[in-house]
Amino acid sequence: MAEISIIVVTGDGLKTFDLNELIAKWNEGGQALGTDLMKLLLTTNLLFLFAITAIKLSILVLYHQVFSISQRFRLMNHTLTGVCLVWLIVSTFVNIFQCKPVSALWEALGSTQYCLASGTMWLGLEVTNLLVDVVILALPISEIGRLQLSTGKKWFVACIFLLGGLVCVASIARITFLYHPSSPEAVTLPESMLTASVQLGIAILCACLPAYGPALKLFRKGVSQAKLSLGMSVSKRYTSDNSKYNVSKNSGMNDLEASPYYMVDGNATPAHNTQVQSGGANLQTTDTIPLNAIQVKKSKIIFIMSQLGPLVWRVALAVPLLYISYACIEAFAVDKLVALQEPYLQSGRIEWADGGSITILERFWHVQFLDELWRRFTVTFAPSTLAFDPVSSWQAFSFLNDLGPLFTIWILESSRVGNRYTPAWLPTIFAFSGQVLSLGAVTPLFYILCIIFSPSSSTLVAKATPAEQRRITSSDSSPLLLPILLLLHTFELFYAFGATQLSTRHYWTWAWQMTPLFVGLANTSLATLISLSPSLSRQLKAISSPLVMLGVPAAISAGIWIYTLIVSPHSISTLFLPLLEPQDALEPLLRRGLQIDEICVFGSSILWIGYHIADLYLNGHVTTSEIFNLLSLLPVITALTGPGASLSYLWSWRESKLHR
Fold first, then answer.
1. For strand 349-351 and strand 281-286, is the pairing parallel, antiparallel, or unpaired?
2. Burial of 229 (0-12, 13-18, 19+ CB in 10 A)
3. Which Pfam families does the record match to this protein (predicted)?
4. DSSP per-residue codes, 24-92
5. Dihedral sign of CA atoms 226, 230, 234, 236 in order
């Protein structure tokens, strides 16, 4: 719909989109229309980035299902998955922050005085997108060549995968509309938007190609039956004398889960035992096709097809989380916040009402990009860390310490065998993205991806699922996760909020901004190193228990909550419930934003675990009395220990049901 709206606004006759020229042609309301158009363009671009990356990841997941037996292929597939996610993060970041300040995109109409040249920016993103698509297309070809099939059949299977090249054609067409060497700030509309829509549509169709086989077989079966009803011969098999043969198949389309199959000639060809009775003799034959290192199982495809129904429900369950993310973005009032921060950034000092002030550090990481990024965030947290807004100081200290249990849960879930190669396997990426964009906006999106792509709780506890899938492995989560979290998260927060010198608080506020990234990298690196030494792993077993890893951060979170209840001069409602009316000053605006951020983070987290618990209940793995007891205790635990500790209790409760 966004593309259609833009095409209607620009018209069919306007070939090159230069916003300043476009605005000049409008007599009345042009400026307002231009502002709305730029906001619409930004939203459309971000949706395109997420959609095209989701399609790429779905194809890579299919590759993993089909060719995962090859270790070399798995390594290339995982690397390419990481490249896709990095491309998404970088592209999203560049789009959002293409102007300085962000609001200059629609207020200054994307002027190159404040913004990157939009044509050059999108040309770069589309070229890299095309390169990734080409690599994804080429990835399975070598594995197909190793199949023990005739050359013709290999070409047939390869062509099915290479039909995805149509996406590359659409991408090349879009590049031609984005390439304007003489005017890098110009973009051709509506053609570039139309090709983006066509590119997405073709990508979806191509990603679903392997699933069309069963549908085509049903279609061909219906055509064959129609021909037979007209007395027409379908093939020599049907015109031959079948009376002396009685072929009975142990596994057919009515029992799809029973036997493996192979993709041959575009069809799901059964590989099963077949009994042939001829002249009273029984012959037992097996028509399996040896595929060297590659074997496509019918159960894999049937599993994917069987998930279509549950997938619809998963998407439906994700709608409330999507609304939470949207509400958080709206509540933060980014435009207003950026405008209020500018005087502090330009003067280089943070000043407050009682005459106090502090100089903003010019350099901390000694990387220009990082220093410019986090400099603005130190202003965002200044009313809280420097305590010239006492309400925000109490609330933020409690809220940020509650993130300790949350990050621990994310990392533990990423260490579960069943969550490998799903979005839940990549908590560091989403945690760091939340640090940059807004944790309250990113957390629901993370849970949406987990709900859609990760195994449900009922799947993990099903008898057909190996117990290994439920296990949290030490090779993915370091036994030193607890000291890592205490050192890089809790310690830094205590100094950022409690140091006696304001300059020390400001320093540790800078340091804490990179904590999600450093915690994730340290955890992964140490987990890999420790797994190489079995003796060291055994020595660290005492602190590697998920109960210990989560229990200590939860206890710290609960202690800070109780301390806040007893010592804070402000009521709980004042500290944690935001005002409904919009705020115009920096301090109340930041206070309201952090309060809403906390509600969105922990509201979506409880909703996510609640979905898992409901899934266990609906599939008979949890009794009604257990649910009643949980719902009775949870409000009491939340009121007494806070959201971080109650979330830890809820996750631990669900974990106990998975392993009983």
1. unpaired
2. exposed
3. Fung_rhodopsin
4. HT--SSHHHHHHHHHHHHHHHHHHHHHHHHHHHHHHHHHHHHHHTT-HHHHHHHHHHHHHHHHHHHHHH
5. positive
Per-residue pLDDT tens over the stretch 497-522: 999 999 999 999 999 999 999 999 99
Q: How far apart (Å, rounded) are the C-alpha atoms in residues 390 and 568? A: 9
Please list, in sequence order, all residues whose beta carbon lies within 8 angstroms of the beta carbon of residue 562, skipping any fewer than 6 positions away: 640, 641, 642
What is the structure's pLDDT at 195? 74
Within 13 Å and on the Cβ side, how many CA atoms surround 532?
Answer: 5
Which one-letter amino acid corresponds to residue 513?
Q
Whether 649 and 637 have beta carbons less than 8 Å apart is answered as: yes
Helix spans in 179-307 (H): 191-207, 212-229, 236-239, 298-306
Residue 414 near residue 427 (C-beta atoms within 8 A): yes
Residue 110 one-letter amino acid: G
E-assigned strand segments in 206-344:
246-249, 261-264, 267-270, 273-278, 281-286
Which of 147-151, 181-185, 368-372, 406-410 tops mean pLDDT?
Answer: 406-410
Contact 318, 448 (CB under 8 A): yes
Overall average pLDDT of the 348-352 stretch: 92
Q: How many CB atoms lie within 10 A of CB 230?
A: 6
Distances (CA, A) of 408 to 177, 256, 472, 490, 658: 46, 40, 12, 12, 18
- Name the pTM for this structure: 0.60
* DSSP states of 9-38: HH-SS--EE-HHHHHHT--SSHHHHHHHHH
Which residue from 293, 220, 243 is spatially nearest to 71, judged by alpha carbons?
293
Q: Which two tokens stand for residue 217?
A: 């077989």
Integer CA distances (angstroms), 77 to 68, 87, 139, in order: 9, 15, 8
Beta pairing partners, 277:
246, 282
For 235: left if phi > 0, alpha if psi spans -120 to 50, otherwise beta; the answer is: beta
Q: Is 279 exposed, middle or buried (0-12, 13-18, 19+ CB in 10 A)?
A: exposed
Q: Which tokens in the block code for residue 612? A: 């898992």
What percentage of the chain reaches a pLDDT higher than 70?
72
In angstroms, the CA 305 to CA 453 distance is 14
Handedness of CA 609, 615, 616, 618 (dihedral sign): positive
HEC-encoded secondary structure of 150-186: CHHHHHHHHHHHHCCHHHHHHHHHHHHHHCCCCCCCC
Those residues whose C-beta lies under 8 Å from the C-beta of residue 74, and which sit 6 or more positions away, are 64, 67, 68
Q: For residue range 133-170, what is the model confidence (pLDDT) as tens digits?
A: 888 888 887 777 666 667 776 677 777 677 777 778 87
CB 184 within 8 A of CB 141: no
* pLDDT above 90 for 211: no
What token pair was written down for 586?
């920096």
Residues 217/268, Cβ–Cβ less than 8 Å: yes
First and final CA of the chain: distance in angstroms? 49
Q: What mean pLDDT do residues 562-585 have?
A: 91
User: What is the per-residue pLDDT for 212?
Assistant: 61
Rounded CA gap, 57 and 324, in Å? Answer: 24
